[in-house]
Each structure stands twice: as C-alpha cells, then as structure tokens.
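FOLDING PROBLEM:
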Amino acid sequence: MTPSGTDVLRGEMVTLRLAAPEDAARLTEILIIDGVALWWGRWDVDRVRRDLVSSADGAVAYVIEADGQVIGAIQYLEENEPEYRHASVDIFLHPGWHRRGLGADAIRVLSRYLFTERGHHRLTIDPAAHNVAAIRSYGRVGFRPVGVMRLYERGRDGTWHDGLLMDLLAVELR
C-alpha cells in the first residue's frame, strides 16, 4: 500500500495500480526488450521483485495499464528531509505503446497525485541526456531541463553516460 493508501490512480488513457508480485514476470518481459534495456540496464525477475515490486529502497511502484494490459511501470521515491522535500519519478513503457501519449498521461497522473495528495511542490526526473523521446514526453507534462549530470550512469556498454536533470514545479504541471 502506498503511504496514503491510494492503490489505483486513473488518467485519461492509463490506469496506474500498485505493482504486485504477480506483475514481476510481465515487467521483466518489458525491461529486457532492447528499446527499454538500453535505458534501464539489465534486469531479471528476481531483481524486479526485489527492486521494483518490493521497493527495498522505499520507492513506490505502479504498473501502467492501457486497454487492460500491463504496458510498463512508473515509480516515485520521496525525499522527506523538510529542507529538501521533493519526489523523484522514473518510468518505462513497452516500445509497442510509445508515441501515443500514454507515458505523458502516466507521468501527469502520478505528478498530480504527488502534488495534491503527498504535498510535494517539486518533482525531478533524470533521463539519459541522449534519450530525446523521453525528454520530449516529460516536457509535454511541464518538466524543464535543469542541467546535465556528467558521466551520471553506467550504460549497458560499460561506459559512463550523461544524464539530464529535469524538474517540475506544482504550478507548471500541464
């Protein structure tokens, strides 16, 4: 259960529901697709259960459903230190569902929840600096580039790659 007890969030095109152990196999299928693994790295069902569904680090994960199918996941992690309070967001979608506005809808729904129900005033997201499609999608919701985080994450190729820090203030949500 999420900290506030909200198990399901509904958007215009997607439904977000808390990830459950029975979602692990489907989420793993999506995460190992080349177009997803490129950005998310290596995953297996045990890691999905531990790091996504169980959220050992305190993150809260929702599966994204469209047309009755699990098409991806979105998660948030809260920083509760009063002087720095905000939440970070992460998302992945099956490539077969890209370019339909579903990712933006999922981000919009979760952002609205984090602003109105969880009391955040600011959200962050950190795509790879060269993930143009993701950056464009986040921009549709109102996220703005803040800066490049140099050599931020290790890619599947073993080399370090830049990340783009983006943020969204509550008043900027579209």
Notes: The chain is about 30% helix and 35% strand.
